[in-house]
Design goal:
The protein has a single domain, classed as Roll (ph1033 like fold). The protein is built from 3 helices and 7 strands, in the order βαβαβββββα. The protein is α+β, with helices and mostly antiparallel strands and 149 residues long. Strand 3 and strand 4 form a beta hairpin.
Length: 149
């Protein structure tokens, strides 16, 4: 089952390409902010047996969603000064055949589309139908090949 919600963030495309090429679609990244709301969302998805999509845009340029993955874990660390850092882990990283505009994402907070100029560390959104379909199709292919995780 694919969650009706997703997390959108940005990551440098050279890092993403490296993960696709050398790590079989598994990777992690660190964001210098607290993803507390995303952490609650992933916990809720896991309790219901759903996969939480992670949607990625390129950090080095303005544009849309270029990649998608399954968000597997979030760990939040706080230093003695109170600054937060989030480490997130993902799997099943895939490149989209066609860039999906950011405006296709509907924010959970206000049910409005994400701005094409959105540059914050992350946003919680409703999972677009296109992404849900791709993830279901991939899971089906993996099942046929005996590679379900």
């Amino acid at each position: 089952m694919i969650s009706e919600f997703c997390v959108y963030t940005i990551l440098h495309s050279t890092k993403i390409e490296g993960i696709i090429e050398s790590h079989e679609g598994r990777g992690s990244a660190i964001e210098r902010s607290s993803w507390a709301s995303a952490e609650r969302l992933i916990e809720k998805a896991k309790r219901s047996g759903a996969k939480l999509p992670l949607l990625l845009g390129a950090a080095e340029k303005e544009g849309g969603i270029l990649f998608y993955a399954t968000l597997d874990a979030i760990s939040i660390f706080r230093d003695p000064q109170g600054k937060s850092e989030t480490r997130y882990e993902f799997s099943n990283l895939e490149r989209l055949e066609t860039e999906l505009p950011k405006e296709a994402l509907i924010k959970i907070s206000d049910n409005k589309p994400l701005s094409r100029r959105y540059i914050r560390p992350y946003s919680l959104c409703r999972t677009p139908k296109e992404i849900r379909s791709l993830m279901v199709a991939k899971r089906y292919r993996d099942q046929e090949q005996g590679e379900v995780n």
